[in-house]
Write a structure and sequence with these properties.
Elements lengths: L8 E4 L9 H11 L6 H7 L6 H6 L7 H10 L3 H21 L11 H5 L6 H5 L18 H4 L19 H4 L12 H8 L5 H10 L8 H11 L7 H9 L8 E6 L27 E4 H4 L6 H17 L10 E5 L2 H10 L2 E4 L5 H12 L6 H6 L2
Parallel strand pairs: 1-2, 1-4, 2-3, 4-5
Amino acid sequence: MTTSKNTKAILFDIGGVCVLSPLEAIATYENQNNIPSDWINYAISRGAPNGFWQRLERGEIEMDKEFFHGFNADLRNEELWQEYHTSFRNSKKKLKDVANPTQLGDHVSLKAEAADSRPTNQDRGAQPSNPSRPLDPPQPEATEEESGRPSLSKLAKDTTIGDPVSLESEDVAQKSSNSNVSPTTQQSTSSSSPSPQEATSTLDSLPPLPDIDGESLFWSMMEHSRTPDPYIFPALLRLEKLASKEKPILAALSNTVIFPDGHPYNRLSIPHESDPRSHFDIYVASAEVGLRKPSVEIYKLALDKLNKHDKQRGGSGVKAEDCVFLDDIGENLKTAKELGMKTIKVVLGKTWRAVKELEQMTGLVLMDEKTRRSKL
């Protein structure tokens, strides 16, 4: 196959796309600590735009004691706790009722989507990696009890996480309920202007806020997102090896954090060949540019870099319609699509589907035959 003339550049998110999703670590933490499902993701995402998580990803604050103190406070926001119980959980139930589980990309919550899409043993190890790379993929036949936590990858030492989003963000395009009212509007309507007496009464009737160790949670997320995805990462390696006439520009567009100097996850602490940046022609990291997805400005910045890069190599430039963007977050894809990019939703536990869709868009072979046969 040859590259589609309409695809000059492929942009990848990192966490949840090139490497395992930190949202899986959140789900594990909630399950192990008896925390209501989706509460952590809800609290983080609803803190936007100026929660401590968002400020860290824009590089406005350092990863220090002040950050972890503020992050803990964001996870214990009483107003959001009330909103989560009175609006979010009811909306999630409605979406589960209308979702079609056979349709790829149904707009459901993380937990609803993950319920039947956890990686199988075949999913974890079916796609072989390049043996010349220092990669520790999950073992294909190991059970969770046998394998334990996935091993860290030297290739992903400085890879940073994807953007946690709420159900409302994931469901920006939800229309399957045949209603003209968006989930956000439903939330606004259902929780509009309670009286002070009603708010106090509701808060008193809620279960107590869960006690979350924000620092422990944070590092479990960082650790989990060190392991390369067993399908998308090998596809990226195949793209790297293409002849120059076939190869599209490879770019990363990721919400990131900056690790402290000397920390083993800091990219300055690892050799160049183990830096994930070495796989990309363009690398746009939110914490380094002061912008984060889904802000349209960071997409425009990435497009400007792609355009200049293409012209420097003798091309005619890159426009949004020349790009394919892969992300696991619906809101991030919405911005890209509005700019004119082609988009691929990477679904938790079913990342091989994104590779097949990318093959269809580009006309390139990005899976080995054994994996392809197992997924037909």
